[in-house]
Structures are given as C-alpha cells and as structure tokens.
Amino acid sequence: MTTGQISGRRRLLVPLYVYPGTEPGAWHGVAARADTVAWVVFNPASGPGRVPEPEFAEAAGTLRAAGIPLLGYVDTDYGRRSHREVVTDLERYQDWYPVDGVFLDQVGSAPELLPHYRRLAVAARSLDARQVVLNPGVHPDPGYAAIADVVITFEGAWEVYQRLQVPAWTTAYPARRFGHLVHTVPADDCDLVLRTARQYGAEYCYATPGTGDNPWSVLMPQLRQGSEVC
C-alpha cells in the first residue's frame, strides 16, 4: 500500500500537538479525514492551560463539526500529580472546551497505583467523559484494562515497535480496548503501522515520521491536506 492511504475506518487516535494559530492546516487536514479518525487528543498546553485560548476553542469547534470526538490531555506524572490537580484539569476542559473524553498521559503501570487511577477514572466519568484512555505507554498490570475504555500499551519508536512482545493477558480483551502510538516511522511505512497494530491485538493506533521531544508535532502523512485517503 502506498503512502497517502489508510486501511480501515476510524482507527486513528491522533495526538494533535500543534498550535492551531500557526498551523491551521493540520487541524483542517484531520477534519477532512474524519472518517478515519476515532479520536483526537486535544492538548492546548500539556493540559488545558491556565486560561482558555480562542484559537484552541475554534480548532475544537472545527473538529467537533466534522464529527471527531476530542480527548482532553492530562498529565498524571506517573501517579505523582495529586487527585485534586488532575481533576482540576478535567474540570477546566469541560468548562472551556467541552470534550468527549480524557487522555490521561504518563500513567503508572504498577499494581499499587491502581486505586489512584481508578478514582481518576470515576471522577472523569462523573464529569461527562464518555471515554477514558490511559497511556502508560507499556503493557501495565492487567488491572488497568479494567479501569479504562482504552489503554495505550505502546508509545515509542518504530524500530522498537517491530519487536514488541505482547503479554498473553491482553487476549482476554477485544482489540478495541488497546491502542499504540508510534513515532520515528519512515513516511512510506506509516500505513504499515496500522496493519501491525492489528497483528498485535490493538484496534487504535497512530504513526508519525516525527522525532525528538515532541514527535507528535509532525502530522501523519496520510492526514496532510492534499494526500489521498482510501
């Protein structure tokens, strides 16, 4: 399959970590391919920020009008941020940019943190989050799958992803309960990531050629304006 094509429908979980004021084309490119996008991770300032930003409110409206659900990004610092700090971020999202769900990032993976994340999931749902996505970026203790709607069990480079070992416990859950985020992918191989994710038992995925501290600032080639989507 050639670059510019996406196999399957609404499987992409897109971390759209670009500023809409300077890169509106990225947001419009994603909106134009709504039939392939399951969710966009909405991240104004490594969270909602301290004040609402009109550019992000407008961008959120563009995606919402296209039928793309938004997940508000919240950093949990591997369990070090307090329950109150995280909930404050969740409340700000719903006050400023009403979102459809939450994307809790830098999630712990050990069993002793399960009560903390269970409370956060309950709080998120009480704030009208219809989807709770946890991102430990690795396969965590199996208890995390019982807390979340989706667990991101891989976040990392394509070279590492190709050697991923998937634990047997994941087979107790359907593929729609797992997602993978892969960076440093050669542009011609981005669609291959989607097929590989299915082989690993994950329905949702995303691939980018981006590298460095914020690889997600580089949009997947298949979502750029002017590319062809199957």
Question: Could you please describe the fold and organization of this structure?
Answer:
The protein has 230 residues and is an alpha/beta fold. It has helices spanning 24-32, 54-65, 83-96, 114-126, 143-147, 158-161, 190-199, and strands at residues 12-15, 37-42, 70-75, 101-105, 131-134, 150-157, 178-183, 204-207. Strands 1-2-3-4-5-6-7-8 form an eight-stranded parallel β-sheet. Strand 6, helix 6 and strand 7 (178-183) form a beta-alpha-beta unit. The longest helix is centred in the middle third of the chain and has 14 residues, at 83-96. The chain is globular, with a radius of gyration of 17 Å.
- Supply Rg: 17 Å
**Total beta strand runs:** 8
Structural class: alpha/beta
Helix and strand sequence? EHEHEHEHEHEHEHE
Order of adjacent strands in the largest pleated sheet: 1-2-3-4-5-6-7-8
Q: Mean pLDDT, nearest integer? A: 93
Number of helices: 7
Beta-strand fraction estimate: 15-25%
- Form type: globular
The first-to-last residue Cα distance is 10 Å
Give the biggest sheet: 8 strands, parallel
Spans of at least 5 consecutive residues whose pLDDT stays below 50 are 1-8, 226-230
Percent helix range: 25-40%
Descriptive key words:
8 strands; 230 residues; 29% helix; disordered C terminus; alpha/beta; globular; disordered N terminus; 8-stranded parallel sheet
Quick synopsis:
By secondary structure, the chain is an alpha/beta fold. It has helices at 24-32, 54-65, 83-96, 114-126, 143-147, 158-161, 190-199, and strands at 12-15, 37-42, 70-75, 101-105, 131-134, 150-157, 178-183, 204-207.
